[in-house]
Design brief:
Porin, ten-stranded antiparallel beta sheet, 1 helix, about 50% strand
């Protein structure tokens, strides 16, 4: 009897789940929502350290020298000392893994890991067009006002700053996936 009751409960639960999931098309256009988190201006050392050809591809490192962070729920600075570890793949794509720290205006340190992909995708309108997207993760102190950053997925864009040659910096914009 217990087995039959358990089986019926499972069948009803699966039927209810299938009915609920059928109501929303998983391929609908609005399946993901985001909320803007911040924009940062990250200054970099223009002298890229080049490892050269490694067993994975062409390896280089761009050192992070500072910057600032501004958003609705976070303001602060980018601490110097981080790095952007770059890998030029044989297919022409550039894989980046940047690891650095933010210091908020109220004194909290947050570790950032930003994994980006850069692919040249020229168009007629913009022959210099690059596809640059990233996935970020944060390590914020538990009990701080930024603990929420430990519990979500974040997406970002990266682009060169407006006067890159004179003032080497990248602009990173970050959104939380809701």
């Amino acid at each position: 009897m217990k087995t039959l009751t358990l089986l019926l409960t499972l069948v009803l639960a699966m039927t209810s789940f299938n009915a609920l999931s059928a109501e929303k098309n998983p391929n609908r256009d609005n399946r993901l929502e985001t909320r803007f988190v911040y924009e940062s201006r990250v200054t970099i050392d223009p002298n890229r350290a080049t490892v050269g050809q490694s067993k994975y591809g062409e390896r280089g490192i761009v050192w992070i020298t500072g910057g600032d962070v501004k958003g609705p729920k976070i303001k602060g600075s980018v601490l110097p000392g981080g790095g952007d570890w770059q890998l030029g793949r044989p297919d022409g794509v550039l894989d980046l893994t940047a690891r650095y720290a933010l210091k908020t205006d109220d004194g909290h340190i947050i570790v950032v890991t930003n994994k980006a992909l850069i692919d040249r995708r020229p168009t007629k309108e913009n022959p210099e067009n690059d596809y640059v997207r990233s996935v970020l993760s944060f390590e914020a102190p538990i009990g701080s006002p930024y603990e929420w950053m430990n519990k979500s997925v974040f997406l970002g864009t990266v682009e060169r700053g407006p006067n890159f040659k004179e003032d080497p910096a990248v602009i990173i914009r970050v959104w939380e996936v809701l």
